[in-house]
Specification:
Blueprint (H helix, E strand, L loop, with lengths): L1 H15 L38 H20 L5 H15 L3 H21 L5 H25 L2
Helix pairs in contact: 1-3, 1-5, 2-3, 2-4, 2-5, 3-4
């Protein structure tokens, strides 16, 4: 079921062809002062589930969505916010753990920020990048759907 939601979100992003707000990483908890335990320590709780096998593709998709969000607004296509909204929905469906949400948001912000530094006006090169990235989002969505869609 979860894979189908991811595939639906990825397919929507591919068909759709303002950055997510930066989140500060959680503060590291301070190490407790060592004290002699008076009772046996409980076994450590299991860590969060490992990421799905298509995690690299999701991270690349998030990065592309960030770049497209910036470039589509720069070139006055008017749908840059839609890419941010799609990432938010993808994160709601796919990333339950804080670490995964931060990784996806970080990839989006990296894609957005890299192009924000590079492009100040819409150029033919920016248009070509948009075209290539829309094609790549479609390929990623197709790959994930056929490989993991069941």
């Amino acid at each position: 079921m979860k894979y189908r939601l991811v595939l639906a979100a990825a397919a929507f992003v591919a068909a759709l062809g303002a950055a997510v707000a930066q989140t500060a990483p959680p503060a590291k908890p301070k190490a407790p002062i060592a004290a002699a335990p008076s009772s046996p320590q409980p076994s450590p709780t299991p860590t969060a589930a490992p990421p799905p096998p298509y995690e690299p593709q999701l991270l690349r998709l998030a990065e592309l969505m960030g770049a497209l969000s910036y470039l589509r607004d720069l070139c006055r296509d008017g749908d840059g916010a839609a890419f941010r909204d799609r990432l938010a929905k993808l994160m709601d469906v796919e990333a339950q753990a804080t670490e995964r949400k931060e990784a996806l948001a970080g990839a989006f912000n990296r894609g957005f920020g890299d192009y924000e530094l590079t492009y100040r006006v819409c150029t033919p090169s920016a248009r070509e990048t948009i075209r290539l990235y829309l094609d790549e989002t479609q390929k990623i969505a197709h790959f994930v759907a056929t490989r993991y869609g069941g």
